[in-house]
Amino acid sequence: MKKVLATILALVMALGVTTMAWAGNEGPDMSGTVVNVTAANAQDVLDGKYGSIDGKTIHFAQGAYEKLYLARVIADDTCLGSGVDYYKGVAHVEVKGSGSTCNPIVTWTVGDKVSAFAGLTTRAQFFVRTVKNVTFTAEAGATFAGFEAAARWANDTEMAAMSAYFSSKNVQFEELRIEKGEDGNDLTSPYVRTNYSGSWLDFSLQNITFNGLTIDGSLSVSKLSVSETKDVLTDYANDGIIVKNCSFNPSGEGKNGIELKSLIAPYRNVQVTGCTFTGATNDGLYIQRLQGATIKNNSFKNIGARAIQLNADNGMGGNVIIQENYINSCGDRAIRFGTVNSDANVKVNNNVIVNSTGRDGGQLFKANEVKTGGSVNLDNNYWSGKTAATAVNTNGGVTVPTKTGIAVGTFKGEVTADMLAEGVVTVNNGDGTFTVRAPRYYYNSTTTTTTDTKTTDTKGSPKTFDAGVGIYAVTAVLSVTGMAWATKKRGN
Hints:
- By secondary structure, the protein is α/β, with parallel strands linked by helices.
- The chain has a domain at about 420-480.
- The chain has a 20-stranded mixed beta sheet that branches.
- It is globular.
């Protein structure tokens, strides 16, 4: 009997292991809010192969990850059903010549949004995948070659996959036929377009957070489009891209740490905080078209060109905060703006710039244009030992600040006394960061007033009478008196 039970137990255990193996082959568990992925299945998870990632935290296991692509459109039932909108294309034909010399030029614009593949009756389609409310985290030891999202025409491999997928869905495409030349005469050889043309693949990122990742490359998001796709893409903005506590170590010519590019809809509500950028051959942070951003408490070191570039002729707007950044060694101006729109309120305060020669006679900051109604505040920065008049280019309408030196903040680099505004001190926190604050005064045992600049404050008697403390003491006395009276009354 014992042998039988042992055999049954062994079979159960074996079945359990087999079931786990089957489950592993099917991908990670998607049932919870946290999805644990590996280098082997990470891209499939991001593509939606195992279900939507909206509302999930994607947690990467230790390991080296190749470049990962965000919000891709894949010719697959699951992926195309994972937050994808699709539109049929509308062909526009320009005929050059006539007769045997006819040369039709076909361009495509975005047509109607359709709810089923059967509605994609033309040979150009437009797909937009939206991914929202996703957080990316990682175990220590996980490294990434980069992250990328790009709007573009499908390549040959993708077009072949799309064509096969549509065939499997019995999608019937209309024939594009041109029988007359520009003079209205019949063509010797009518132009017939029956082959598969292409698909425009686009995306929208909504509330996407990168937290604590080591990226040995770039975070690249590109909405560089062609003219015929503008009608649809203006409705698909990227809103709430958040990057915090990440490390960027990009290498190669023209590499940026973070690059957010757009010719259409602006990037809204961008946050880049607590990050380090080292060795970017171009810019540390580049954003083209922007509507609201917080860029705070970052470190930029050995940057080939600019630490922060918010540069586009179509401008930036909203509240833009650039504060408490430590910029060490730039090959160009440390901070560069394009057009500051009339609705922009830009605050560039309490940033440390060191070891940077700048450009055009030592300039460390420039904006192409500040439109009427827009504002740029440059108070309380340290300009690498230069005067503000030398460091700030005023040709675009920026005013030279009268307040210089760091007044407050915590920084990822050493802040020395010569970098400070009047009336503040710097504190070495012992972890590579420095805090700038107002001095704190205490009485010592000899009754002389001292200024504390240590990491750990030693509190003594207050220098002056605190009214709040006095009120608290009176209240305490009254409270005790009331308790005694109540006790006496209960006794009576």
